[in-house]
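Weekly puzzle thread! Below is a chain. First person to post its structure in C-alpha cell form gets bragging rights.
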Amino acid sequence: MKTEKLLVDDLKHPEKNVRVHTPNQIQEIYRSVKMFGQIRPVVVDENNVILAGNGLVQAYRENGEEKIDVLKMKDLSENDKKKL
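Winning reply:
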C-alpha cells in the first residue's frame, strides 16, 4: 500500500456523507491521533474526494494540522466509491 502526504485543505468532503460525527467524537479522534499517530490513511479518489476517513480529516482541519497521510484510489466506478 503506497500512501502519500497531502495538504488537508486539498481534500474534499463528499456531497453525501452518511456518517456524521459529533464534536466530542472529532475531539476523541484527534486525541487518539496525538497519542498513537495516524495509524490508517484517509482513502481518496483521483479528485481528492474523501471515500473513507471524513472524521479524521475534520479533526485535522479543526486542529490546524496541515498534512495528512492518504491512499489514493484510481479508476473506481461511482458504485465502487459508494461501497468503499
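Puzzle host: Confirmed. Bonus trivia for everyone else. Helices lie at 23-36, 54-62, 78-83.
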